[in-house]
Amino acid sequence: LHTDLDSGGGKIRYILSGEGAGTIFVIDEKTGNIHATKTLDREERAEYTLMAQAVDRLTNKPLEPPSEFIVKVQDINDNPPEFLNGPHHATVPEMSNV
After folding, report:
1. CA gap 2, 8 in Å, rounded
2. Distance, CA of 12 to CA of 31 (rounded, Å)
3. How far apart are CA 29 and CA 15, in angstroms?
4. What whole-number distance in Å separates Cα of residue 26 and Cα of residue 33?
5. How far is CA 65 from each of CA 28, 68, 90, rounded to the nearest angstrom?
6. Is the dihedral of CA 56, 66, 29, 23 positive or negative?
7. 50 in Cβ contact with 21 (< 8 Å)
8. Cα separation of 50 and 67, whole Å?
9. pTM listed for this prediction
10. Handedness of CA 5, 50, 16, 65 (dihedral sign)
11. What is the CB neighbour count within 10 angstroms for residue 81?
């Protein structure tokens, strides 16, 4: 996150709120850079909704409307397949439409 009003003088503070803000996601209050603090797992949660905003460091008044970020976690094959109550048997007739 970055605002055009930020001239680098330290007058602006960036804040983050929402699901996982301050624990899973952190924002550098001086630069607006947002980082994840741990590896995300699709099996734990598929997406997070965050709000970030630039505020005046002295007054805490918003300098711009908040920006919404939706972090969508992609799935990877990190768990081996499990077949419960097996073994399983199936048949497919020859020349079947697939």
Report:
1. 11
2. 9
3. 6
4. 8
5. 18, 10, 57
6. positive
7. yes
8. 8
9. 0.70
10. positive
11. 5
DSSP state of 21: B
Q: What pLDDT does 43 receive?
A: 87
What is the bridge-based pairing of β-strands 25-27 and 34-36?
antiparallel
CA end-to-end span of the chain: 48
Length of the chain: 98
Q: Could you read off the pLDDT of 21-53 as tens digits, one per residue?
A: 999 999 999 889 999 999 999 989 999 999 999
Q: Which of 75, 56, 54 is nearest to 1 (CA)?
A: 54
Place of tokens 């992609």: 74
pLDDT over 90 at 82, yes or no: no
